[in-house]
Every structure is written in C-alpha cells, then in structure tokens.
C-alpha cells in the first residue's frame, strides 16, 4: 500500500516566515525603528555595544537597561525613575535587539513550523 502524500498547500514556509517577519517589523513603533543602513552588517559578530551607539536610547535609558533589577526597584522606589521610564527604556532596547540580532527569527522557527502544521491540518478538514 503506497503512502499518501500530504496535500499541497498554497503557502510554503518561506511565505509564512516573510509574513511573520513583516508583522514583527510593523509591530515596532516607527520611533523605535533603526534605518536599515544604520544596522550592523551580517559580518559583525559582536553587537553588544550597538544599543549604546545606535542613538535610540538616551543616557538615562542606557543606565536603566544596564542596571540590576534591585537597582531599578530602588531607583523607582526613591522616585529617581518612573515605571513608565523603565518600561519605555526596556521596550526600546527590546526593539533594538529584534532589529539587530533577528531574535524573532532565531526563537520563532518552531512557531513558524507549527503555523505550517496548523495550515496543513486545517487544509485536511480534520
């Protein structure tokens, strides 16, 4: 008995990946986006200093995001930093990380595969 081939789908994984990357890119507020020509090239292996050099974070935001959690709690409790300032600083730093190291692409391959599996499952009307 011959094994049945999975049904053909109109969308392959590259289309799903491209849509997911576009969705992520569009979810980053425009004021947190780094122009493509300002991003480090693929040949740059150490980007640890990029958040400080890219110009997106203020000195205060750099200090916040480079502080230990206990320091942040103390500064908020003392009124030195507000919760909004801390949250904004970390949101901006996360946006930088997504754009620079492709964090989404690295940690979402499993999700993309599951999206393809779901699509395949749905196409079989199971």
Would you kindly provide a written description of the structure presented here, covering whatever features stand out?
- With 126 residues, the chain is an all-alpha fold.
- Helix content is 59%, strand content 0%.
- The chain has one domain (24-35, 47-123).
- The relative contact order is 0.17.
Defining traits:
7 helices; 126 residues; elongated
Beta-strand content: under 5%
Mean pLDDT: 81
**Could you say which structural class the secondary elements and strand pairing correspond to?**
mainly alpha
Number of contiguous helices: 7
Globally, the shape reads elongated
One letter per element, helices H and strands E, the order comes to HHHHHHH
Helical content (DSSP H or I, runs of 4+): 55-70%
Number of domains: 1
Q: What's the helix and strand layout?
A:
Elements: H1 13-27, H2 50-53, H3 59-65, H4 69-77, H5 83-101, H6 103-107, H7 109-123
Helix pairs in contact: 1-7, 3-5
Brief overview, please?
The protein is mainly α and 126 residues long. It is 59% helix and 0% strand. The chain has helices spanning 13-27, 50-53, 59-65, 69-77, 83-101, 103-107, 109-123.
